[in-house]
Amino acid sequence: MQPRKHILIIVENLPVPFDRRVWLEATTLHASGYDVSVICPQASVSPAPHEVVDGIHIYRYPQPPATTTKIAYAWEFPYCWLETLKLAWRIWRTKRFDAIHACNPPDTFFLIGRIFKMLGGVRFVYDQHDLCPELYLSRFGGRRAVYYGLLRVLERATYGAADMVLSTNESYRAHALARGVRADRVFVVRSGPRLSGFTPVPPEEHLKKGRKYLVCYLGVMAPQDGVDYLLRAVRHVVDVVHRSDVHFVLIGSGDSFQAVKGLRDDLGLTDLVEMPGRVPDSEVRRYLSTADLCVCPDPRNPLNDVSTMNKVLEYMTVGKAMVSFDLKESRFSAQDGALYATPNDEIEFGERILQLLDDEELREEMGRKNRARLEAELSWERTSRELLRAYAELFGGAPEADA
């Protein structure tokens, strides 16, 4: 019997197992016969420097400060690179790995891949979660900026080092092909939730805080995520249309959490907009199962229009209708399960929320369509097959799982 292949997953953007996509990949690979180790930053929800969860070894380093300036954004790259390299070397000395599965951002991990390729012929897998140059433009602007040019160089170097590229959707795959990656090296592995792990629960009316309707947002709060657009849409609902029967819950955290909280208070929405921060999955299910509809306020920018939003798929899992700006990949995911507002028009976004709240029959129809589409095409049970096919091709055959 061949020894089990050992895969090292490295990720900087979120801690594991909080990073849902990375944890789904890690657990799927482990269950399919691979040994899996993960390197990631620490966080309050995952503080241990090392632990074993479901047979997966997780190694963590102290998280860098929140990224709010260009200088901090640049410093985050070398800091995480050095911390990751130290832990990778520690793991290598204990048990050598056969592949490094690098999740971006940042696009600097290709250097670690090349080091271990020289040491032991390790394969390098590029799991492209974000288009980093477009992420920079979406957060800071400035197409001619030095940082933007550097990010383009790093992305090309990462593609060049990769033995295999995992793209989250067809738009990202087209981006990789346009940068010169061979078609047979790019696999689309979408980030749909696992149906068995994200099931609805009975609604709890008290979560609406005495109001008729509950509207939920779930996701990261960074400058490109549009939570400020949502708050201005809520102000339109409250101050212009004079609706006081809607309670809003914004679940999540990120670099912009405090700024968003301050904007909420400045707009006089403190009593109407609840911001619990990051909460356990059990709490997420309670809120989403109670919600009358969910929202995706991601504005159109160079990144968002071609990115698949995890929140869209999670709303679909619990069978909820949603309001979204009209973005290419959001429309591909939700199709007829959402009402779409003109991109970046927060007034129209607020009007779409009210239109859907006032049409219970349409909300229920959209919710059914969303759940059915997820079950048929977009759940992790469906999309993970492409991950396993990619690794089987990388290693020249499927692994031998435990009996």
Q: Can you give a write-up of this model?
A:
- The protein has 403 residues and is an alpha/beta fold.
- It has two domains: 6-192 and 379-395, 3-Layer(aba) Sandwich (Rossmann fold); 196-377, 3-Layer(aba) Sandwich (Rossmann fold).
- It contains 14 helices and 14 strands.
- The chain has helices at 20-31, 70-94, 110-120, 132-140, 146-161, 170-178, 227-240, 257-266, 281-290, 310-317, 328-334, 346-357, 360-378, 380-395; strands at residues 6-11, 35-41, 50-53, 56-61, 99-103, 123-128, 164-167, 186-188, 213-218, 246-251, 273-277, 293-296, 322-325, 338-341.
- The strands form two sheets. It has an eight-stranded mixed β-sheet, sandwiched between helices. Strands 11-10-9-12-13-14 form a six-stranded parallel β-sheet, sandwiched between helices.
- Strand 12 (293-296), helix 10 and strand 13 (322-325) form a beta-alpha-beta unit.
- The longest helix has 25 residues, at 70-94.
- It is globular.
- The protein starts with 5 loop residues before the first strand and ends in an 8-residue tail after the last helix.
- The model has no long low-confidence stretch (mean pLDDT 93).
